[in-house]
Amino acid sequence: MNNLTRLFLPTCIILLAGLTACAPTTITLSPETPSVEITTPSQTPRLATATEPPTPTAIATAISIETPTPTETPRMTLEDWKEVFSGPYLVYEGKTYDFESAFKEENLAMWTDPDQVRALPLGSGAITLLNPNGEITIYVDPNVAAERVEKGAVALVDQDGPTSPEISACLSLLAATLQYQKGNKNIYVQFNENSIGEFPYNSPYGITINLNLRVLQITLDDGTIISPIMPMPKHFKVTHANVVEKRLTLDEAGIVITDPDKWLDQVLKAGYDAIVIYPR
To answer: Is residue 242 part of a domain?
Structure first.
């Protein structure tokens, strides 16, 4: 069974099971809706930005939460990241699916040795960085990854060699969703620009993300749909999930992103439910 097949099977199972972790997750925050208590964690729902650990920018009127101070900025260690990527994420028909098994099947490993990371060949697109500030960065050059590892980041790599980062991206989005639901709102997934251009496996495919399946969504009082775990990628096209069709640039689709923090709202309301992300 190849990597994508293994990825597809749990995804299908998640759809059947209706698990909120990976299934469409829309939380409506409004004063009239008692279910706002789903945000039981004491931290503020936040909009992830494309550069720095996001601070709260969207607060439901039914919640009173203090703005975090700089001293609350997370400092994620290797052990912290192991905790994020641990435990079950689905129980279906008596079988438990967990991160440990997924890592073993996909031969994924966490590295903290910068020299080991630096030795990876260019085009190792599966390099994903687990940063001390809680950001999970998809698409990272080996040299850039090594420099960040020297400063405390952890490299998540496929030990089989250069391959598509789609599996690590899906697992990262799932982990960030589960952490958010547990109250840890510091984990988010950022798709980075890669300086070496298209990877050998990537042309012309990219990473396809089903927005209603893999991306946690929150609906604000004014009807705006945001994601607290996924900032707007720098390079992407829009399309429809489960449909073979041309992928459109934002210009071709007639979409003008007026606020990067609300990119998800504008894409979904333009009628597109999937995007394809490229390294540059």
So the answer is: yes
